[in-house]
Amino acid sequence: MNLASGNIVASQRDILGLPVCELDWADAFAFAEEVATMPFGQTVIAFINANNANLMMRDQDYRAVLERQVVFPDGHGVDIASMVFHGRKFPANLNGTDFVPALLTYITRPMRVALIGTRKTTLMRAAENFRQHAPWHEFIPISDGFFDREKSDEIMEQVRDAKVDILLVAMGSPAQEKWIDRHVGPGHARLVLSVGALFDFVAGDVRRAPLGIRRLRLEWLYRLLQEPTRLWRRYILGNPVFLYHVMRYKLSGMVVKRRQDDTAKAGLL
Asked: Could you give the dihedral angle defined by the CA atoms of residues 104, 78, 50 and 218, in that order, rounded to the nearest 10 degrees?
């Protein structure tokens, strides 16, 4: 499986039946910049981690949405799955919390960036901090994430009128990916990213783990210790469930291959 855009060609790995891009940081930046600066068309980037994968395994509508988007790998869990299925980790951990701010630094051409999601006060602080982070871009907070969903088309008309290049949507998974799939289309932005809790981090509402912990890909453990009541179910229960899905998918593939081999051998008799 391959994904191509201009000069960038990315192979994709099967992770629980979902094609996931295997790009390093440099190629991921180049790919995102290229689609963001095209004169037409639209690319939607989502991120898959262990929690999102668990959601995908029980929500076929969510899986179908992700299959229509470009998916980047996020976190140690997806690397474990890649090792089990393909014998190697992904070239880079392209989690949205790190990737999006770094991408905005990487793109030197001034962009108009729209923001939708989270609480209003957090949204405004995130927009201001983004302006300080990359002042050559224009950041436009369109709406918090608590608007009446019946008014989604009105929200997107505001995005269209703003003539933005990049749209960031922070509503949490799977809501943000499904909402983008239903309401965001060509003419709204060339590059659209579902960014989860990014605005909370950028606004300073949620603290990032120290850099050393992030390099070890243990930020999930740091966050669990910071917010055990809210996150224990996702990590304490969710991580074993994810590993169960990985092993079940691996074994099912082995069974299918064995049957194919047996059939091939029978045909030679």
From this structure: -70
Which of 60, 56, 95 has the alpha carbon at shortest distance from 74? 95
Q: Are 45 and 193 in contact (CB under 8 A)?
A: yes
Residue 267 CA to residue 174 CA, distance in Å, equals 45
Q: What residue ranges in 100-259 does DSSP mark as E strands? A: 112-117, 138-143, 166-170, 191-194
**Residue in 48, 47, 167, 32 with CA at minimum distance from that of residue 103:** 32
Q: Could you count the other beta carbons within 10 Å of the beta carbon of residue 186?
A: 9
How far is CA 266 from each of CA 129, 235, 255, 256, 263, rounded to the nearest angstrom? Answer: 65, 46, 16, 15, 5
Beta-sheet pairing, 2-5 with 8-15: antiparallel
pLDDT surpassing 80 at residue 132: yes
Tokens of 35: 């689609």
CB of 126 closer than 8 Å to CB of 118? yes
β-pair type (191-194, 43-48): parallel
What are the pLDDT digits (tens) for 16-46? Answer: 999 999 999 999 999 999 999 998 899 999 9
Mean pLDDT of 251-256: 70
Give the start-to-end residue ranges of the domains of the chain: 2-247
pTM: 0.89
Cα–Cα distance between 98 and 83 in angstroms, integer?
A: 23
Query: Is the distance from CB of 126 to CB of 133 less than 8 angstroms?
Result: no
Q: Tell me the CA distances in angstroms from 18 to 78, 92, 107, 185, 255, one per residue in order.
A: 11, 18, 29, 22, 19
Q: Which residue has the tokens 């609480």?
A: 119
Name residue, tokens 């405004």.
124
